[in-house]
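Risk mitigation, structural track. In case the binding assays with zinc ion fail to produce interpretable data, a predicted complex structure has been prepared as a fallback.
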Amino acid sequence: MTTPAEHELRRAVDLIASSKYFVAFTGAGISTPSGIPDFRSAGTGLWQRDDPMKVASATAFRQSPRNFYNWLRPLLRVSYSAHANDAHLALATLEKAGKLQAVITQNIDELHQKAGSVNVVELHGSIHRFYCPANKEHGVDFAAVVTSILSGEIPLCATCGTVLRPDITLYEEELAADDWLKAENEIALADLLLVAGSSLEVTPAALLPFKACRNGCKIILVNHSATSIDPYAELVMRSDVAECIPAMVALLNQRCG
Ligand SMILES: [Zn+2]
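Fallback model:
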């Protein structure tokens, strides 16, 4: 973990203070300090046994719901009990203070909402919502679904018996159109974008910061490793998001009194 340098924090605060429409774009790296491993990173923890492309695809869900739920179970377990960390909380504080207009996230854990963020665009859906693929109107009792999955069962619709699915984007699926449009709209308005904890490898989500860039929006990037947008960013910070973002917000509050 690298602590952010003082001059970088001051530069970030200058950019935030002079922005008119500030938006955050977050990826798996903002949730790892809350104990949620990035299942796309090779060799990380719970998911190294299975290739998510194979078990978490739309085809796999239809063909083998058991394998699919075996893959989903540990993710649901950690996500269900996870707490928002200081980075989520700092972004929520900024939104409340009127200094951050929206959070666009690639994460499915609802930790931004748990922290108190209100204007959150979930590009890949949420693991905390389930629906019946046969009929979205069929009621789903989330607590009962979680209990059944965690006890090793495959959750079925109480109305028609169809295998329920989480409201997340699976491999082979398009992103939900309304969320994508909301995200594009926020990106079009933004004059400053904080990209935090995303290696920008998952498209089409990763295209959004580039769209922002093309509009003339400035980019602050906080990520452990290099990303393809680094050369275009106003400020690149190779720091831990859970240290860097709260430090940024604390300095901003200090300056604003
Ligand atoms: Zn049903």
